[in-house]
Amino acid sequence: MSAKTASKKPGSKGASSEAALDIGINDEERARIVEGLSRLLADTYTLYLKTHNFHWNVKGPMFNTLHLMFETQYNELALAVDLIAERIRALGYPAPGTYSEFARLTCIPEPEGVPHAEEMIVQLVEGQEAVVRTARNLFPVVDAARDEPSADLLTQRMQVHEKTAWMLRSLLES
Ligand SMILES: [Fe+2]
Q1: pLDDT given for residue 174 in this prediction
Q2: Do the beta carbons of residue 60 and residue 116 sit within 8 Å?
């Protein structure tokens, strides 16, 4: 693959960036799906990094609970990014994989400094919900294109993030 084809963006003219691919989804729909999956990948990776950061830096009386809970979450996110990136590859496009691309594509802000433990939980709830919204916004596009594998992936990711958001949110309730 040449550097020229590798750098092609989803949605650019002549959508397919590699060898001809005919899986029953037209080029325009495939480009739109990849655009959305790239945002989902960027959100998931950014949330992964934030969760790992908080695993390292959490302090206070809830240290043990949060340190371990964040570890479970970042491990799950690390596996999820692989599934999302490889779905993008199966759709015929390069997967974004640099910090600058992720920063451009994600809607999840970086934390400023080291937040208090409770603020970490708030930020992770917001992050989990943001990923759910990104996945849900893409769902009608994959549904219309009859892209069942992407629909299945989105459904699984929404399920995990909604459940994790509930678990984190529960820590804030009395
Ligand atoms: Fe650790």
Answers
A1: 84
A2: yes
* Cα 133 to middle of ligand 1, angstroms: 29
The domain in which residue 138 lies consists of: 24-172
CATH code, 154:
1.20.1260.10
Q: How far is the CA of 67 from the centre of ligand 1 (A)?
A: 8
Does 13 reside within a domain?
A: no
Spatial contact of 108 and 162, defined as CB atoms under 8 Å apart: no
Q: Would you say residue 14 lies in a domain?
A: no
User: How many independent structural domains does the chain possess?
Assistant: 1
Asked if residues 141 and 36 have their Cβ atoms less than 8 Å apart, the reply is yes
Backbone angles phi, psi at 35, to 5 degrees: -60, -45
Going from the Cα of 47 to the center of ligand 1, the distance in angstroms, rounded, reads 16
C-alpha 49 – ligand 1 centre gap (Å): 13
Task: Give, as one character, the DSSP assignment of residue 94.
Answer: P
pLDDT band at 1 (very low <50, low <70, confident <90, very high): very low
pTM: 0.89
Ligand 1 center from residue 122 Cα (angstroms): 21
Cα 54 to middle of ligand 1, angstroms: 10
pLDDT (tens digit, 9 = 90+) per residue, 42-97?
Answer: 999 999 999 999 999 999 999 999 999 999 999 999 999 999 999 999 999 999 99
Instruction: For the beta carbon of residue 128, count every other beta carbon within 10 angstroms.
Output: 25
